[in-house]
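Let us walk through a complete example step by step. Step one is to write down the protein sequence. Step two is to encode the small molecule, zinc ion, as a SMILES string so that its atoms and bonds are unambiguous. Step three, shown after the inputs, is the structure prediction itself.
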Amino acid sequence: MLPQRIQPAALRLWCRCLNLMFPPVCPFCDAQVAQNGRLCEVCRSALPKQPDHYCLRCGQRAYGGPDGCLRCLNKAHAPNRFVVGYLYQSPLREQIHRFKYRDTPELSKQLGALGWTRMASQLRSIPLDIVVPLPLHNTKLIQRRFNQSALLAGCWAKNLKIPMVTNGLQRFKMTQSQASLTARQRRDNVRGAFRADSKQVSQRRILLVDDVMTTGATALAAVQALKRAGACSVTIACLALAIPDRADDAVQGGKHHAKH
Ligand SMILES: [Zn+2]
Ligand SMILES: [Zn+2]
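Step three: the predicted structure of the complex.
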């Protein structure tokens, strides 16, 4: 009995000592917080909203009922559902950037938890068998050393208590960065970029995880590959949805503005 009584007290004392030496800080801004892994009040209250007015199937900014937008209705391999946590805005945008480009995969826990807070009830209501992260091309994976979507996917798979299948989908084509491309160029850029392993995805209800979605061209190409390989359904879950600015809309609308 005695050791069992002493142990928690000793542990508490040890934790208190650790807290004195290394006070817990907000993972976003380094302000002191009461508990490790918690966001400070300032960062928490500044988190962006959950986006509204998007297609419930593909996430595009297009209106449509539960059956999806016109683009989804006309497409054989459209996604079945789209779930998103946040608008891709400050201060989350800077933290996702830090997570991806400044080699801070440990931020994935916080970002995964933040995504889960917003999406849990929706994700739990959808029948799902496996979680598949949107893959990086091997060259990029070696450069970055981790796949940001796989870290988020691992976190959500654990919460959903279903397996994550990291090699269910592979990226064969080394695509150029999507950022500077028009919507049409983005679609061409990712055409045929993915191949799915039918042994792992066929007859499965899949949750495809992406960190940030902009035009959705990459995620939609991945959905197509999964469905061609026999997936029953594909739900896209993404942490943040970027709403294109007006300049992008103009390009997508076919009005080509010459930039000097
Ligand atoms: Zn903070
Ligand atoms: Zn749609």
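Step four is interpretation. The beta strands are 81-87, 130-133, 169-171, 194-196, 205-213, 233-241.
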